[in-house]
Amino acid sequence: MTVQDVRAFNRFYTNVIGALDYSRQLYAPYTLTESRVLYELAHSPRTDAADLRGELSLDAGYLSRILNKFERDGLIERTASRQDPRRVRVTLTPRGRETAALLAERADESVGALLATVPAADRPRLSEAMRTVRTLLSDGRPPRREDVLLREPGPGDLGWIVARNAAVYAAEYGFDASYEGLVARIVADFAEDHDPHLERVWIAELDGRPVGCVMCVRDDTPATARLRLLLVEPDARGLGIGDRLVSAVVDFARGAGYRDLVLWTNDVLTSARRLYQRHGFVLTAEKPHRSFGQDLNGQDWRLRLAGEVE
Question: Is residue 309 part of a domain?
């Protein structure tokens, strides 16, 4: 591979994504760089101007001009940092958050149209190629929270939920094959019959591969939803994925009008239990049991929600 090969690919890809005329492509008065700064402000916990400059490798004067434009447009507010008055904290205004969301929606539509031209059979090859490029050129940079995408399941994802739940729980807790059977039945019931307005599955994706999942299904108790099969791959932990998955279920259940959200777990899952507590779940019952080849202590947890399902 030569320098010219890389430059030729860069020219090809910038044409593919419309980087040279980004504002026209998204029907917005912002360049690709400006849109990226807005994205970082909307999604990154690092909101100091110095952090933005370092994260995006931007010249200080160039970033200052971008922020000045955003301020004139009413998209941001700049204040001195409480920890260090020499640093400038940049936050989005309500108008800024609305603009960032609109740009993200239009970017999703643009990329969706591009992916529609790629046959489904070729998409795994494309995903693997993109992952290879990122890995080889990232200079060892660890993944960030904002690199994780929550999405709906695609073909093969439900099977992945079964396989990875079985493998991870066997490795970490010694669960036997009966646990895999339970997960398979839960997933099969969802696949065969579910109401998309009241039940849903989320897949957490990082670098084109699934790294987490969770389900929200209708419980037998009226006006009650049940959180099931929360899982985060061991090598993807520490990125807040579990927190985002639980938040997604809570927000969905509340929006669907459920009165309560419940879950069943075992006390050996200490990290998961702490996560549920942070989201307001309350332990309502405990019972020892023999399951999955282990002596366990089962726990029922409940979160009270507003609203009620008809």
Answer: no
**For the chain, percent of residues with pLDDT exceeding 90:** 54
* pTM greater than 0.70: no
Residue 139 lies in a domain: no
Helices (H) and strands (E) in the chain, counts: 11, 9
Residues 246 and 214: beta-carbon distance below 8 Å: yes
Q: How far is CA 132 from the centre of its chain?
A: 21
- Summarised one tens digit per residue, pLDDT across range 89-110 is 888 899 999 998 888 888 888 8
Tell me if 261 sits within 8 A of 225, measured CB to CB: yes
CA gap 215, 92 in Å, rounded: 32
Based on the fold, state whether residues 273 and 231 are members of the same structural domain. Answer: yes
Q: Is 281 helix (H, G, I), strand (E, B) or coil?
A: coil
| Dist. CA 208–CA 236, nearest whole Å | 13
User: Is beta strand 224-232 parallel, antiparallel or unpaired with respect to 260-266?
Assistant: parallel
Q: What pLDDT score does 143 carry?
A: 74
In-domain check, residue 48: yes
Please give the residue range of the domain that contains residue 20: 3-114
pLDDT above 80: residue 83: no
Does the residue 284 lie in any domain? yes
